[in-house]
Amino acid sequence: MQHFNKIFPWVFVFFIITTSFVLMLNSSLKESATMDELAHIPSGYSYVKYLDYRLNPEHPPLVKALSALPLLFQDLNFPKNKSAWQNEVNGQWEAGAQFLYESNNNADKIIQWSRLGPMFLTLILLLFIYIWSKELIGRWWALLPTFLFSISPTVLSHGHYVTTDLGAALGIFISSYYFVKFLLQPNYKHLIFAGIAFGIAQLMKFSTVLLLPFFGFLILVFCLWQIKTKQANLIKKTRTFLKIFFKHILYLIGIVIIGYFVVYSVYFIFTLNYPIEKQKSDTEFILASFAGGPIQNIENNTKEQNPLILSCINFPSIRCPAEINIWLTENKILRPIGQYLLGVLMVFQRSSGGNTGYFLGEVSASGWWYYFPTVFVLKESLPSLILIFLALILALWKILKKFKNKILNIKQSFWDYLATHFAEFSMLVFIIFYWAYSIKSPLNIGVRHILPTIPFIYILTASSLKKWLNEKIRLPNGFFKKISSSLIIISKFALKGGIIGILIFWCFAESLIVYPHFLSYFNQLAGGTNNGYQYATDSNYDWGQDLLRLKNFIDNPPTGEEKIEKIAIDYFGGGNPKYYLQDKVEYWWSSKGNPIKDEIKWLAVSINTIQGALGKLHPGQERKPEDEYEWLTKIKNPYEPDYKAGKSIFIYKLQN
Asked: For residue 168, what are the CA distances in angstroms to 211, 429, 539, 620?
């Protein structure tokens, strides 16, 4: 029996991971390149093939580089002789289009092989979710968060795209795992693993730098808990606290040093063939507008005075990082750090500026504070939401019961909780911290940005449900009373287990029903997947993934329709309509008017473009009248197309 309990859960883990991989792979084979993949795939290839980091510096290299490794075994043409590579600054979009669609390469083969990289990272994350959950709630209950993550439509979609979001989730999860393990079991092995994991996280996405304040807060709480158990007066406790606190801060510094050594090593390799002169000029151009622009006419700039020091003295301090960045690019040893810092500063610029998007009927670049809570509630499957909120209610009810019975000493209960649940506390803190940061940010372009919190949400959910299901009830005295009470307990256990089981099965059914349209998934609160575009688009619903389905529609028109000789296309995404449809395509946009005047009877428009054209403008947001598809609204209801390609491309049959 003991051997069964050890081996059989791993059999289930294998089936969970395999199922997730099969769903991702089959969905991927039916989809064209998404918007960000147009930049990420060619960039990753240039890193591993040419060791040159001139493309896409605003994202760390690891996901892109792993995705490009299978491409090294293919005979591919890369547009190194084009202006986008040689002369332009970060010509990622043009270089991407040239590499995938204009260099006699098989674009679909490149895209599908590249996506194996993020799928591999997704499977690793599933394995780590099980490992950490097993340590916290047992090997059988650990299957629940692993399963929920494996069949989440959000995970199944973004888990197979060459983007950084799933990589960020993996980096944050393993970094948190090893850091908490080090705090609870401090030794050099855990310190080194925590440092390496931290470095890997920084190479996944720049937002993972938020791990630093998160770790700092955990150290503070951990040290307060440590001195709480010691019997001493206030002065001695303060001294002990300071001693423990600074010791752990030194440990954190060690972890950061190890982590950034990993970062430096990878950036060093990928900048080996990036010419110093071009790296410097590219950096100067990209940061030209940072904090008001570069320093002009610095007084007393003599040979004896360092221009870098002068710039930081004579200019607002917020510009100083940009000047340091430019200075780093001139040094052969330090320029890998300069390339890393450039990405951080680019993210800072973009985050502060926001991103124009559609949400709840409105178009804005300033963002909405309620964006992420809303899209999470609408895009998380309904049974999963029920499990999450049931677990939350049960946890809150347990606390309220202690208040009601007047047995809750808040301070003592908190320290007791930390003594046995420090890892769960760490997860809860990260969820609150990361969600607060995301809500404050004006960069609202998809539920994918809160992906790093989802594994922790599922683990905490499983932990709460386990306590509920295994709740101990004291049996009364007396034989018959014990029998009747036992029957009641068994009935309650069966009822609770049945509720959880039904919801788990429902989660799986939701993913099978929506397959293969995982990206466009919205739950029943939003009216289902077919209506999700009414609430949010961009990477929540439309990211260009349905271009292959549009090709299939045009090549095989519905019964009763004539052969389509020409179609006007206003497409949002990383695909290339002319690559797939050649002369059948006429690129279109609103201001060109009705294509019927050019004897084109068909129009296909991405729903993200439609919502951007028709959505109500947020105060201060501008849009040209000619870009509002006014002519289309006069002849058709844009939200009632004649056909759809997949979920995201609306197709209209135009009449003379």
From this structure: 11, 17, 16, 33
Nearest to 615 by CA among 539, 535, 520: 535
The per-residue pLDDT for 299 is: 45
pLDDT, tens digit, 9 for 90 and up, residues 138-192: 999 999 999 999 999 999 999 999 999 999 999 999 999 999 999 999 999 999 9
Report if pTM > 0.85.
yes
Residue 193 near residue 175 (C-beta atoms within 8 A):
no
Q: Could you say which of 353, 381, 416 is where a domain stops?
A: 353
Name residue, tokens 């100083």.
Answer: 320
Give the H/E segment covering residue 312.
helix 307-314
Do 639 and 533 sit in the same domain of this protein? yes
Compute, in degrees rounded to 10, the torsion defined by CA atoms 453, 456, 458, 460: -140
1-17: average pLDDT: 84
Residue where a domain stops, chosen among 334, 353, 372: 353
Q: Is 639 helix (H, G, I), strand (E, B) or coil?
A: coil
| 568 DSSP β-pair partners | 586, 603
Q: Do 260 and 348 fall into the same domain?
A: no
SS3 letters across 222-261? HHHHHHHCCCCCHHHHHHHHHHHHHHHHHHHHHHHHHHHH
Q: What is the CA radius of gyration of the chain?
A: 28
Geometric angle at alpha carbon 55, from 50 and 59, rounded to 5°: 115
**φ, ψ for residue 329 (rounded to 5)?**
-65, -15
Query: How would residue 2 be classed by pLDDT, with cut points 50, 70 and 90?
Result: low
Alpha carbon 9 to its chain's center:
28
Which pLDDT score, from 0 to 100, does residue 474 have? 58
Instruction: Write the DSSP symbol of residue 563.
Output: P
Residues 651, 602 contacting (CB under 8 angstroms): yes
Q: Are 323 and 292 in contact (CB under 8 A)?
A: no
